[in-house]
Design a protein that fits this description.
The complex is a heterodimer of chains A (209) and B (263). With 209 residues, chain A is α+β, with helices and mostly antiparallel strands. Helices cover 47% and strands 12% of the residues of chain A. In chain A, strand 1 and strand 2 (82-87) form a beta hairpin. In chain B, strands 1-3-2 form a 3-stranded antiparallel sheet. In chain B, helix 3 (40-56) runs antiparallel to helix 4 (63-80) and helix 7 (180-190) packs across helix 9. The model of chain B is unreliable at 1-17, 139-147 and 248-263 (pLDDT under 50). The longest helix of chain B is centred in the middle third of the chain and has 27 residues, at 99-125. The chains are: A alpha+beta (209), B mainly alpha (263).
Amino acid sequence: MSNIETLPELKEIIGSLLFAAKKSVTAKEIRKTLVGAGKNYGGLYEQFASVRENDILAVVEELKMELIQGSTGLSIADVAGGFRLQNEMNCGPWVRTFLDKDRSAKLSKPALETLAIVAYRQPVLRSEIESVRGVAVDHVLRNLVELQLVKVVARSELPGRPWLFGTTQRFLEHFGLKCLEDMPGMDELKRMELDEDKPEQTESLPGME
Amino acid sequence: MADLLQTEEYKVNLEVFEGPLDLLLYLIKKDELDVYDIQIGRITTQYMEYLELMKILNLEIAGDFIVMASTLMLIKSRMLLPDEERGPVDEDDEDDPRWDLVRQLVEYKKFKDAAGFLEYLEEEQENIFSREGEHVELGLHPDVGMSDVGIFDLISALNQALDRAPEEELGEIFSEQFTVTEKVDVLLKMTGKGRSVSLGRLFLGMRSRQEIVCTFLAVLELIKLNRLAARQDGHFEEIVIEQVEGNEPESVLKEDEDGTDEY
């Protein structure tokens, strides 16, 4: 069915998948691919179909180390719950020049502040963000939604059923974060026992631990 | 487009940049005060001075600033009362009228720090590309604010310039000689060919307050349009403005017309 003489190692397969992927790849997706390739090609190719996610994770770690040790200019990063093959940070200026990219625009301070509050407090109401920042955040929040860094995650049960906001996958990718817990001080900033002054909001928020 | 200062529509929307809590933190930091032991009288006075300045600048003072002003006044007045007359006291914390404000400031400060962390990450990510070279691009017009120098640093500089300007003769009516548009042109010429200009020096030799204010508004406008950048090497050092590279030198004030801030 196929004309490959020797089968590659699992490590090579995973490496090639990361190379081909356009966004971060999860261990689950890799496993699905291994199963799929086994079905499509049959025979010898089925031997990787039984690989477990834990094995995949271990192999990715191995790959990571080898990329670093081999000074390849490449690295694998844990981003947004998966893995991403990317260049080493110190090679950035050359890659940027090669791709003919301008320095990308940065988020403003108000935008970053608003984003930080959404990230730590999600799901969060606009009014809650405003009470922390002490200013109206209409404009900034709208921009963040347009940039797909923030999205509406639910509607609260409060009168008027206002929207609850949360961060997106793109948020994690933009900042190179593995997951939300990756942010420093998550426990502390999450949602402190809320103060006496706004109890009616805490009680009715759905989906909060 | 002429006489921008005279028309009511011309207002720099400060609220997009920073709010009353920013201003308070700025004042506290400036005087190296302890956030847990704010001298409320002094802070209130300084806060009101800034509001006054914003009024002079015809900046749109968001309601939030006014609310904070009244909160400060309330705290100040309660501080004057003897303990037993301050009203019911539930917990230890509650007998200091400043406590709510302190708590709000401390919490806000934490998120400001968290925002700083995100900023650092963003900077790091700028040099990282994945296979498609597609790290998240924010597009050409993201929410660019004043990245290097805060609005209050700029206002501080203006304050100094106004202090130096001679008092205008009362009783004499000046015709309006300066416009923001005109000053925009002057500024662009001054900063052309990569020259940088110190903000303090910019105001030297200006005789009328109106000229200073127009110049200042022109600086704000150009920063907002990302034509100029304001830099400051350390806290309270001299602010320097220079042109942002690679921006088209056309239609400077156009963008304001499509009312980016209305909602």
